[in-house]
Amino acid sequence: MLRGEVSSNPDFDRWYAAKSARFLVEPSHCLETFGNTLVNYHLISELDDHPGKIRVREGRLEAHQPLVITPHFQETEFEGFGDKAREYFDFLKENEEHLRVLQYGYHLKSDNFSEQIVTDRLSAVTERVKASVLASGDKFAAVVQCVDEPWDVALVELWLREVNRSAKTNIRDLQKSGRLF
User: Has residue 162 got a pLDDT over 70?
Assistant: First the structure.
């Protein structure tokens, strides 16, 4: 597939957008455990079929406070499964007080969204945006170089990366506070 060429397969386009995103500056802090976190993103992409035209998108990705979800196996109907599945379910039911899942949510805020198109080399624009973000000292800022369409796939990848990176710290904080068990 040539640069700027969109395939006829939207699944491939999403996969390609996710795998080609380059995370140039990542937040230096984990997502907050006991509150929401605003991640200020800067997405940089070269316009398809227009070399030297660079789009810079800026906005906020709000990661909601992780919620602790506990299963309720006692209230679950269980029928039509084999003996091994029943034994496993009974084990889970007996140990449900030890099972917890963290749920993260996010919201793309459009109230602080902007985009501009500049004429320059991709590398020059990328370096200027990185330098500006690093100079700001924003501990929740991210700079991502991505495809121009579907650009929002890079935001989902950013969110997934931050959830994965933050989960261990969030679990530790919740355990210390007594909110996990």
Answer: yes
